[in-house]
Amino acid sequence: QEVREAGWDSPLTLEREQVQHQDPIIAQMEHFAKVCRGEEEPLCGGRDGIESLAVIMAVLRSSQTQAVVSPKSLLDKARDGMDCAADAGDGESASASQSGSPSTKTS
Fold it and tell me: Angle of helix 46-65 relative to helix 71-99, nearest 10 degrees?
């Protein structure tokens, strides 16, 4: 027999759940420490963190400039900066290998 999901015309139900009240910063730091010790898996990944920071930075920059700031534009700009830094590192090693001698630093 097919089970139908309740729709907008179904009677409302109220369920009460018991939730442990805890300081969210303390809970987050305890979880972070457990992740560092290898006792737990992270609840979110690095990409989630970067995207959250981009939203926060967009809000801050928008409040400072009174202009619309897209989190995506900040992520793209950061990615372009990382690409440039990687290219600079590659260029240095490439020039050393092309000349046949390691690059030396003079002062």
Answer: 110
Which CB contacts under 8 angstroms, 24+ apart, belong to 49-52? 50/75, 51/75
Whole-angstrom Cα Rg for the chain? 25
Contacts of 62 (CB under 8 A, 6+ apart): 68, 69
Of the pLDDT bands very low, low, confident and very high (cuts 50, 70, 90), residue 56 is very high
Nearest to 50 by CA among 85, 75, 25, 69: 75
d(CA 105, CA 102): 10
Look up residue 33 and give its two tokens: 């420490």
Secondary structure class of 12 (helix, strand, coil): coil
pTM summary value: 0.50
DSSP state of 16: -
Tell me the pLDDT of the chain averaged across its residues: 81
